[in-house]
Design goal:
Order of helices and strands: EHEEHHHHEEH
CATH topology: CBS-domain
Largest sheet: 3 strands, antiparallel
CATH architecture: Roll
Radius of gyration: 15 Å
Length: 131
């Protein structure tokens, strides 16, 4: 695992949202089965943020999961995303990615080439690799 790169274990071309997308769009992505608990936010081809499931739950402020709840149309992905995103390149080793996740207390790293999103690697991907 020490020389294996994140490109070999990442989810390539993950589903994304734009910063102007409503929280309803975000909600629909989180409702999909087998979806990561993190959604990259991409504008004009560049990674601009990340939304974790925790970010989404906090933004709901106790709203139900009914799609007609006002919060889903009144807020956007840009309103709730984390803007200071740690990322890595496809050539980053899995070991370095794990160290980054531990150091920054995060469970997902977007994989970028320049500013262009190429994939996402999560702690779950790392655990699956170890098995």
């Amino acid at each position: 695992m020490s020389s294996q790169t994140v490109a070999s274990i990442m989810t390539a071309n993950p589903e994304v949202v734009r910063s102007g997308d409503s929280l309803l769009v975000v909600k629909k992505l989180f409702e999909k089965q087998q979806f990561h608990h993190h959604i990259p936010v991409v504008d004009n081809g560049a990674l601009v943020g990340m939304i974790s499931l925790y970010d989404f739950i906090i933004a709901m402020r106790g709203a139900s999961l009914d799609d007609t709840e006002p919060v889903y149309s009144s807020k956007t992905a840009g309103d709730i995303m984390s803007r200071e995103v740690k990322s890595c390149s496809p050539e980053t080793t899995v070991a370095v990615a794990v160290k980054m996740m531990l150091e920054h207390h995060i469970n997902a790293l977007p994989v970028v080439d320049g500013n262009a999103l190429r994939g996402i690697v999560t702690s779950r991907d790392v655990m699956a690799t170890l098995l």
